[in-house]
Amino acid sequence: MATFNNFVLQLMLTITLILLAEAAKDRRAIPSEEEQKELERQLKAINKSAIKSFKTEQGEIYDCIDIHKQLAFDHHLLKDHNIQMKPTSVPKWITSKNISQKVDPLQLLPRGISCPDGTVIVKRTTMQDLLNVQHLKSIGFNSYRHGHTEGNNIDLTGHHFATVDYKYSTVSGVKGNINLWDLQVSQDQVSLATMAIAGGPIENLASISVGWMVNPLLYQDHVHLYTYWTADGYQKTGCYDIRCPGFVQVSKRIPLGVLLKPVSIYNGTQYQMELSLHQDRATGDWWFIFGGVNVGYWPKSLFIASGLAKGTDKASWGGQVYSPLTKKSPFMGSGHFPNEGFGKAAFINGIEIIDGKGEALIPQIYTIKTHKSSPNCYKAKFIHDDDDPWIRAVFYGGPGGCTGQLLSEESQGLKNLDKL
Ligand SMILES: *[C@@H]1O[C@H](CO)[C@@H](O)[C@H](O)[C@H]1NC(C)=O
Ligand SMILES: *[C@@H]1O[C@H](CO)[C@@H](O)[C@H](O)[C@H]1NC(C)=O
Ligand SMILES: *[C@@H]1O[C@H](CO)[C@@H](O)[C@H](O)[C@H]1NC(C)=O
């Protein structure tokens, strides 16, 4: 009888979760008149007048914006900001051999798109983009949450993580070569590879993430470069790419949100993008560098001291997916488990951090924790070899299909509810 009651309870909760997901969808479909007005106001503010504009075959619009008139400077904390054209110092990363091809960030845009000196390149945001971002937020898809949700009431329904997390001493920079894959996901789903830093109190964690994302809501189809930041757990501050003031773009060649190519082939050529985030020792700004090219930075003044203004102590590398419970969860990484190894499983290699003294170091195994929220569907494996710095990597991913296992998978959480 107890088992039967348990089953009924689980079923009811499942139905409730599905209804909640449906309700979230409805909210997206019909924004209230007030919300609509607010979004129009936001869009008008985001859309800076362009010196030149380009439209790609995919229908994406790129604008060349006067570097001093970019959206970042609408931020109240950046009114008197002195723009930095490049970092005052770049950390000396430990060089390691490359066993796969690097994506050249300067070859990403279609030929013929070129912005004049004194401008930066920005992907045009549309009303639909803003509506979609709101929807993502409503389903809890935001920020760096995974390793730090214990004892929190954060709803992670439908989210799955497979990462390696560093939490040991001060971090003032992170680097990783993120292996690139293109995947199929359905309209409401997300699959991403990320390198992230986070700091501050758990209720309003400051974080910056960079990597690739497949998500029709934010990026239509295929795999795109993504960045995300928040100074307060995504309550009042932060956004993806340049959908809100904050990130100061300096590159006129590499727009945030750009389509990434070429992608890796299963059991064939592997491509990776070399990304780093580091805090400039002189200014405290967090620089984002892609394949040796300065893309831009998040100014120190966006963050409080316990957030990211004075370094941080949390970093992570790996994959994340989201799916509404009505669908099977998508591929993560290449869609294959880590044990298949190089060429088949997705990886992030060349994992390094910059410590509090500004020195590059390779995280020791005892400073790394592997985090797998749904190990039946997605796994992560940290590999290390003291003789070969290349071999500081996370292999991560899996074929998904988790949502179909909701009843068994979530049963632990439901048992806890049972006790209430
Ligand atoms: C955004 O600005 C461009 C010119 O830079 C203009 O053509 C377009 O209509 C504007 N869109 C909105 C929604 O304001
Ligand atoms: C490693 O990188 C160098 C320079 O970027 C390139 O010439 C070489 O082909 C790469 N090797 C492999 C195995 O990808
Ligand atoms: C991978 O490629 C090798 C050499 O090209 C081939 O012999 C092997 O059968 C392939 N394996 C799979 C699983 O496709």
From TrEMBL:
Keywords noted in UniProt: Signal
Keyword Signal: yes
InterPro entries membership: Glutamic_endopeptidase, Neprosin, Neprosin_propep
Membrane-spanning segments: none
One Pfam family per UniProt: Neprosin
Domain Neprosin PEP catalytic: from-to ranges: 154-403
Signal sequence interval, chain numbering: 1-23
PANTHER family named in the record: PROTEIN, PUTATIVE (DUF239)-RELATED, PROTEIN, PUTATIVE (DUF239)-RELATED-RELATED
Name this polypeptide is given: Neprosin PEP catalytic domain-containing protein
Species annotation: Brassica carinata (Ethiopian mustard)
